[in-house]
Amino acid sequence: MTDGPWLVVGLGNPGAQYAGNRHNVGQMVLDELARRTGVAFGSRASGLLSRRPQAAVAEARLGVLPGGAPGPRVVLAKPTTYMNVSGGPVAALARYYDVPAERVVLVHDELDIPFADVRLKRGGGEGGHNGLRDTTKALGTKDYVRVRVGIGRPPGRQDPADFVLKDFAKQELGDLPWLLDHAADAVEAVVVDGLETAQQRFHTKP
């Protein structure tokens, strides 16, 4: 495995009013990764992204390699732009840290996966997810890794666009810490063990 870092990005919308939304579960997972690695997010400013900071960033080692050595270097990032323009910060960070698309990992909410399930893939379509669509456009490729955190479909006839911008329901909140930990484990498995091994672990029902 190359010595270069991985770029792990949690998608979401900025601001306290969105922090608990289903659409922000990717950023919640990044907060869990920062907590378990003991790092704090800071801003990257003009020299990297633009005249204003467009991402909160932390650098860490994630996981443990066979033999007990510290795991790979990772750049953890939470764009401070809105979801539908996530691609600019992702591409700028990838250029700055010299991270190729195959070592970019996006963590995001997924309507087409049941709540509390996690699925992993590289490439493929965006499924109507504006954050993925903008990232694909900015990177010029679909071949980045996606950690897809299941939030399930909206009940009844509720508009999916409204559903993702609501906080998790009371009955989901009890399982949310487990889901965030599970998704963080999936990110760690991708960067330490590789995508195929991680897929075998997280796509297999116990």
From TrEMBL:
GO biological process: protein quality control for misfolded or incompletely synthesized proteins; rescue of stalled ribosome
Pfam families in the cross-refs: Pept_tRNA_hydro (PF01195)
InterPro entries recorded: Pept_tRNA_hydro, Pept_tRNA_hydro_CS, Pept_tRNA_hydro_sf
Record's keyword terms, sorted: Cytoplasm, Hydrolase, RNA-binding, tRNA-binding
A single GO molecular function term of this UniProt record: peptidyl-tRNA hydrolase activity
Record localization: Cytoplasm
Enzyme class, spelled out: hydrolase
CDD domains: PTH (cd00462)
EC number from the UniProt entry: 3.1.1.29
The protein's role, per its UniProt record: Hydrolyzes ribosome-free peptidyl-tRNAs (with 1 or more amino acids incorporated), which drop off the ribosome during protein synthesis, or as a result of ribosome stalling. Catalyzes the release of premature peptidyl moieties from peptidyl-tRNA molecules trapped in stalled 50S ribosomal subunits, and thus maintains levels of free tRNAs and 50S ribosomes.
Assembly and interaction partners: Monomer.
UniProt-recorded name of the protein: Peptidyl-tRNA hydrolase
Species name: Cellulomonas gilvus (strain ATCC 13127 / NRRL B-14078)
